[in-house]
Amino acid sequence: xxxxxxxxxxxxxxxxxxxxxxxxxxxxxxxxxxxxxxxxxxxxxxxxxxxxxxxxxxxxxxxxxxxxxxxxxxxxxxxxxxxxxxxxxxxxxxxxxxxxxxxxxxxxxxxxxxxxxxxxxxxxxxxxxxxxxxxxxxxxxxxxxxxxxxxxxxxxxxxxxxxxx
Amino acid sequence: xxxxxxxxxxxxxxxxxxxxxxxxxxxxxxxxxxxxxxxxxxxxxxxxxxxxxxxxxxxxxxxxxxxxxxxxxxxxxxxxxxxxxxxxxxxxxxxxxxxxxxxxxxxxxxxxxxxxxxxxxxxxxxxxxxxxxxxxxxxxxxxxxxxxxxxxxxxxxxxxxxxxxxxxxxxxxxxxxxxxxxxxxxxxxxxxxxxxxxxxxxxxxxxxxxxxxxxxxxxxxxxxxxxxxxxxxxxxxxxxxxxxxxxxxxxxxxxxxxxxxxxxxxxxxxxxxxxxxxxxxxxxxxxxxxxxxxxxxxxxxxxxxxxxxxxxxxxxxxxxxxxxxxxxxxxxxxxxxxxxxxxxxxxxxxxxxxxxxxxxxxxxxxxxxxxxxxxxxxxxxxxxxxxxxxxxxxxxxxxxxxxxxxxxxxxxxxxxxxxxxxxxxxxxxxxxxxxxxxxxxxxxxxxxxxxxxxxxxxxxxxxxxxxxxxxxxxxxxxxxxxxxxxxxxxxxxxxxxxxxxxxxxxxxxxxxxxxxxxxxxxxxxxxxxxxxxxxxxxxxxxxxxxxxxxxxxxxxxxxxxxxxxxxxxxxxxxxxxxxxxxxxxxxxxxxxxxxxxxxxxxxxxxxxxxxxxxxxxxxxxxxxxxxxxxxxxxxxxxxxxxxxxxxxxxxxxxxxxxxxxxxxxxxxxxxxxxxxxxxxxxxxxxxxxxxxxxxxxxxxxxxxxxxxxxxxxxxxxxxxxxxxxxxxxxxxxxxxxxxxxxxxxxx
Lengths: 165, 747
Description:
The complex is a heterodimer of chains A (165) and B (747). Chain A has helices at residues 31-38, 94-102, 111-124, 130-136, 148-163, and strands at residues 10-16, 19-25, 57-60, 63-66, 79-81. Chain A has 165 residues and is of the alpha+beta class.
C-alpha cells in the first residue's frame, strides 16, 4: 500500500467472506489491492485495472463489482465475498464443481471472477435462459475457452441445484 | 507391448489436474507471490521509433537515492536477448529501433512512488527516419536492419510454376492482408528475480518456455547453466505471447535484483503489456494462380511477406510456418512460394497461436473462393477437385503418408452446418432485400504439428519419470501448463501406459533445476512429441518392473505400488529418461526447403454462418461448425475446449481485433478500445473430431492447439463475402472497414 507521503489514512471495517475485518488505507486505494495485499486474498486477480475484464470481480452487498474500480472507503460496512468464500470447509460448491467437471476453467486466471459472476447470476436467476447466461457473464472476459464450456458449467450447476434443493 | 485392449483413461474427460486450485482461487500466479523486503521494478521506454539516445534526464521531486537504477552499462556480460540470433538488446545502448524499447530500469519498495518515478525519467532521443510498413521496408525507404531490411527469405519450389502458368486457361490474382493481433492472455506478463552469490540467478514467472529464458539469462549474466534457474509459476494464458518475451522481463527483473541485492518483482500493467510485448505479425500475401477451365490447379505463385518489427526474434520461424502452409491442403504440380520477413520500426512481432499459418491460410482460402467465382463453380467443388490425398505431394514435396480424407471432413462439416440448404436459402433471401444479409462460408486447411523440418531433431527433447516406493509416479518435463491441459494430458498418457490411477501421477513444476529440457511449449508439439516421450518413459518403467520379475505382464493397479517399493529396495531408484529420436524416414532439406516439413498434420474444414447488418455494417457470427482430424482424442473436454477457444480467438482476428498504430506505437492498448470477443459475441461453436489414430503419437494423438486459428477467420470472411457480395481482402472486417467497402461498391 502507498505509505501516503502525508496522505490521510482511514480505517475501514467490513465483512469479508463472513469474517469481520478492519484495515487502514488511503481512501482511494483500490479494493482489489486491499484484498490482495492487506488481506492476502490473492484469488481475486487483476487483468486490466480498468473495469473491462472482470478478473477482479467480487460480490459486494450482493452485487457483482469490479474491485479494481471500488475505492477502499466504499467498503465501509459492506459484506464482501471473494472466491475464497465460495467453497465451504474444503467442499466445492455447485458452480465450482461444474466448472471443474465441464472444462469451465482453462488457464484459470478469469475463473475466480467468472465463478463469482455465475454465482451472482444464479442468485438473481436460479434458472437462467441461454441469453441470461450470456448477459450475466458479459462483463467477464475469457481468452481460453470461447465461453462454450463456461455456459455448460453454469447450466450444469443449475441442474445440480435442482437435484439438491 | 501388451497394452490393455481397452483404454481406461484415453478418450475420457479426466478432470483438469490443477483444476481444484483454479476454481478455488488458490492457484498461485506470479503476482500472487511475495517475498519479504521485495522491491518492485519498472521499465522506462524510448517513445521515439528510431534515433540516437542523446541523454537520460531524471526529473526533480523524486528521491532518486532510494531507487535502484539500471542502464545498459550495468549488464554483466552480453547486452542481448539471445534467441535465434543475437540482435535484440536487453536494454537500448546508444540507439533505439522502436518506440517501446527499454532504456532504463527502476526499482523501489513502494510501487506507487515507482510509477511516479518512471514518469519523471525522460529519454532524449535525436530522431532518425523510421519506417512502419511492409511496402516501405521492401522499398528500402530507409535501411534499418542489415543490408536490405530482410530478416529472412524462403523459396519453396515444386515443378515449374512459370512454365505451367503460361499454359493455364484461367489465371486469378489477388492480394490479401492481415493485421497485428494481441494475444491478450488475461494474466499480464510478470516475473520475480533473485540474485545471490551462492545461488546465481533465479527467476519465477509466467512463461511458456523455461529453457528459452534460461538461455537468454546465461548470455546476459555470463553464468554457467547451473547458476541460472528458471521456474514457471501458474500461467494465466500464453497463446505464444509468453514464448519469447518472458526472456526480456526476466532479464530486466534479474538486472534490478543484481544491482539492488534484493528480490525484485516486475508485473506489467495491461497498457504496458499491450504496448511493449509481441503481437501476431501483420502480413501481405499475393497470389497468382493458374487453372484449367474446369478448375484444376495448374500453377500457384505465392508471395508471402510478414512484418517482423525492429528485431529478428522469432520472425524466421514464423515465416517458415506461414510459407509452408501457404499452398494449403491442395495438390498442384507447379508451386512457387516466396516468403520474406522484413524489418520495421515497430516493437518486434512474435509468436501467436498459429505462428504465421493463420496469415497465409486466410489469403489462400479467400483466394480459393474468388477462384471458384471466376471459374464459375461452387467453392466446395473447386476444393473437391484439388484436395490432396494420401500418397500425393504437398508444395514442399512432402508425400502425404496419412490417411487424409478432406472430402469426408468437408461433407461432415456441411452436414452439421446444413451448408448447402443455407447457402441456397440465404442467396434467395438476400436477393429480396432487407437490412440483414446472411451468409455461410467455409475454409479447408491443414496445420503441421511439432517443429518444422529438422526442428525436432535439433531440439532433441528429453523427458524423465520417477516412481516412488508408494507407487506414485512423477513426470519431469520442461513443458508448461498454461491452460491448454499439459498436466492432465501427461497424467492420462502416463497413467494409461502404467496401468495405474490418474491420481497416482504427479506432474513436477517446470523448474530448470529439476526438469530436463523437453523443448518449448509451442507449435502444437506438447501432446504429440513430448507426450510420446512421457508414454515411452512410462513403458520403460513398466518394463523394468516386469523384467525384474516384480510384476507379471497383466498386473492390476494395486500391484504396481508394492512392486515399485520392492524394486527401489533391491535395485535403487526407479527412473527412466527418454530422448526424442527423429524417425528415420523423415527427411528435410533446409537448403531447398523441401521434404517432410512435419511428422503429422491436423486436417480441418470449418463452416461459419454470419449475418451482416447493412445499416451498421456490423457482422455477427450466428453459428460455427469445426470439423477436424487430429488423431486420437486423449481428453474430449480439453480437446474441444482447445478448438472452441481457438475459434473465439479467430472470430476476434476476423472481426474485432484491430491494433491501431501511430508512429510504431499501439494507440488503442486498452481492453476498452482493443476489442476481443465476449460471451455476447460468440455463436454456438460445434466441434466434431474424426478420429484417425496417428501411429507415432501417444495413444494415436496428433497436435491440436494452433489449428483452429488457421481456418476460422477465412471461413468468416468467405461468409461475409457470401452475405454481402463484397470481396473481402483484409481482416479484421470491422464495421468501419466494411462500411467503407460497402460505400465503394454502391458508389
